[in-house]
Amino acid sequence: MLRCMHSQVSRMGLSFAAIILGAWLAAPSGAAAGDPTERAVSTWPPKGEAVRLPVTRDTWFGTLNKENVGNNGGASQMKLKGQQEYSLFDVDVAGLKGKLVTGALWHVRCASLEQPLLRVSVSSVASPWVEGTSSGYKAQEGSACYKQAELGKRDWTFPGSTFMEACFGRGHTVWRFADATRPDEKGWQTIAVEPDVVAARVAGLSEGFAVADDVGNVWSYKDDKFTWTYFPNRFIYSHEQSASAPWLEVWTDGEDHEAPEAVTDVAASTEGLPAGEALVTWVTPADKGGGKTLGFNVTYKVGDQSKPMPRYLVPMAGKPGEQVRMHIVDLPFKPGESVEVTVSAVDSAGNVGAPVTKTVKLSATPRVFNIAETDVKPFPSSQELPEVGGLKVAVVDLLDKVHPTTGKMIPKHPDGYLGGNHIWSAGQKLVRLQAARNEAVCFQVNLAGKSRGVGLELAFPDQPQLQTRVMRFDYTGTSAGPLPDALLPLGGKLAIPNPGDPEAAGQKNASVLCEIYVPHNVEAGKKSGTLTITSGGQSLSVAVDLTVWDFTLPNKLSFVPEMNAYGTVTPKGRGLDYYRLAHEHRCCLNRLYYGWAGDVAMAPERKGTRLDWAGWAKSFGPLLDGSAFKGLPRDSEPVDVFYLPFNENWPVNIHKHYRKSYWPEDALDRAYKVALKKEFATFAKFCNKQGWYDTILEFYLNNKVYYKQGEGWMGSAAPWIFDEPVNTQDFWALRWYGLLFHQAIRPVVGQAKLWYRGDISYSPYERDMFWGVMDLECLGGGSDLKARLEHDEHALWRKAYFTEYGSANNPASPNTQPASWCLVAWSRGGVGVLPWQTIAKPGAWQKGEQTGLFYANSKGVFPSVRLKAFRRGQQDVEYLTLLGTAYDAPQPAVAAGMQQIVDLRGRVHKTSETDAGTLRFGRADPASLWSLRCRVGKMVSAKKPAYQRCARPMPSPEVDLDRLPDLGYVTVAPKVAPVTPE
């Protein structure tokens, strides 16, 4: 999350002929045929004759800020700039109908000779678009921009989509990349275009050509100085410049006027799909006319009205005999409605096969699962508070916080909240709680006034198995003044003000947290306890009524609040206390054990030619077999996720094998691959032998090439941006490592869960490069759009998983954020949340840190109240998961029912463009979150479900390296040497 420095990298112009005859970075010797980690070999020249097709319309889009609604259809130039600027063009292909396309070159004249095009992707387009006549990013209603195909009138694909959802693999589009020739003496460059991309336009399966700059950021390393160039502007002339207008050269060889065969084996499924949806499959037929079956036309009919299926929902063809999938979604169908679907195959010359019709009954599951109201209502508000020894006593929610000097509450509440709310009646001197077995519930006691010593004791005399504790808050400095965050054992009486807490000097009230844990063996029903408060020789008794629901939360988490950490913690000594504290709070601490340079902390020792994994297991094995957590509520449950020490520089030194290139198949030699795969496989076998089957063991790449800036060449081992990848080169490199990892482990991994994980902030720009490769994607700045892209992969390719990462709330903002974040991430289909840093620095005791959820001093490791708020969110997610299981209700319907009770609409607050952000929920308040929990708890309890160790198991995603998206290098292209870093 760093800002990048700007510099310039100049390029020399070379003629097209010189490039064709010049140096070529060939595929490494001995490349295995079909190995996706090797450079694909292209053929050239194409067969047949070439025709020149002028560009008839073009435009370009900016993705950032207000530029994303601007149109440039009338501009004299077009821009390509990494993931910040994209171009779009079209040609008249009518004359190609019935012909077999064998190759294509896009000819463009460079308008920025210092920054010409380098590597370029060209894609088909799944949506009609309007060129527009604007320039300078001026918004023009009805014209194409990044946000809409027709501004103010029509989205690119589904509601809320952008340009990126209509091209580059999304929306069933076809794309490939090629290296551009250097500008000739007049500035002309050529880029090879995949024949299928052109054929898709000819066949009516595409609406034009989308173009992207794949290199994006560039860098150089000269004289021991690393220079980073942030998104160079690459300009070409548009078709408005007649003498410099771009054009498409297309080769064809022969004709095809014979239609493909009819599709076969049309089938439909609605399993697990929301109301009004279905997954329709069929088998790709052969084409006998000399071309290939390329795609399909689909129509749907309800009643007497027939309409074309939106192009972005219709799959492209597979190989003859391969199954394709079409997800019926986004259309206004009713639950259980029957739709007549007609499918016709289309070949590469535009011939259409015979239609095949099937009646599809859509999912009949309810859109909303109604969560019944409960007879447990909030107590009436009251201004009257009980007193003891000069202190006024109030009880508030775990998710509330009270300012120690002003008494103001965060979040705000109506007058009388302190005397009567959803858990407290001042008039009755009663605290009312509900909990499942294996759950911890909390409430805060606020004491207004001054006292030399306050004693608090919480006890359930008739229920000794209930575990109670009382903790005091330590106050930390924030932008709003001192506020409660860290929690320590009360350890005797509490003075108000507390002389041991200088940040709360002038304190007029104190907050104390009371916690009750309900073990597995407690019977359901009402339990009566007493909170006794003593001050100034007086005593006050407050009744505590706890209703234990008739169900038990699982020991193994089905949703993981992952407490990310760098340094500090180890599974030894005091460091183990961090792991145990997270485990106790139904979270999982996950430390990354390597740094920017790829050096590994606590790495297994090398004995001869082998790594000593058995020795390494002595340190980390207790986390992975659960023995580190004996005596805790989830006794002996292993950690849920664990970062592996593998990275680009360990256990194989990347610097010994790296050859300068922006592309991994050219940059890293065969010896590197062989050695790294051997180490992956050895560890996978070891994990399986150890029986580590419950922890997700993550191969994760975290480093960034621009960390070399200021740190020197060895400052970072990464030649790419691995964490939060930005450019196509970065996503491609991540894909390459994932393929290598799966190639190595799949034959030997057994039941162990070795997953490939990536932290992706710019997920709309990843295209379909991770499909079939990335097992767990951690999405920065979670949103409905990003979740939708994940669900598309799951429906159309394979089931994988995603979580959301960002920051926890800072100590000055509402503690409803962690709980709300868990709920909203779950509602989108995520399996966890990840605050990107969680270990507080020593100074956090005095000045609060947003990234400090675990506090430590010489006496131990202590939780923040925000850590308990994450536990609250995790427990609430378990409630909702159990509700869906108990009532056979699908997760989307339960999530929709949840949204009717608590408003979880939020916004992402960012401090910079690269900041993953913090989700803020201005509408979710403690009372509505309590209401949700009560209503769900009562419904689940009524079903008395049997205990299960895990409410939602997460088996490893299937990996089939023989079935991957058809992407990468243009298959018919001249040999052009890629530009390399200087």
Task: Note down, in words, how this protein is organized.
The chain is an alpha+beta fold. It has four domains: 47-254; 264-361, Immunoglobulins (Immunoglobulin-like, Sandwich); 387-552, Immunoglobulins (Immunoglobulin-like), CATH 2.60.40.10; 560-943, Alpha-Beta Barrel (TIM Barrel). Helix content is 16%, strand content 30%. It is built from twelve helices and 47 strands. The chain has an eight-stranded antiparallel sheet, covered by helices on one side. An eight-stranded parallel sheet has the order 35-34-43-42-41-40-39-38. A six-stranded antiparallel sheet has the order 20-21-26-31-28-29, covered by helices on one side. Strand 22 and strand 23 form a beta hairpin. Helix 6 (670-690) packs across helix 7 (728-745), helix 10 packs across helix 11 (891-899) and helix 10 (865-886) packs parallel to helix 12. The longest helix has 22 residues, at 865-886. It starts with 15 loop residues before the first helix and ends in a 39-residue tail after the last helix.
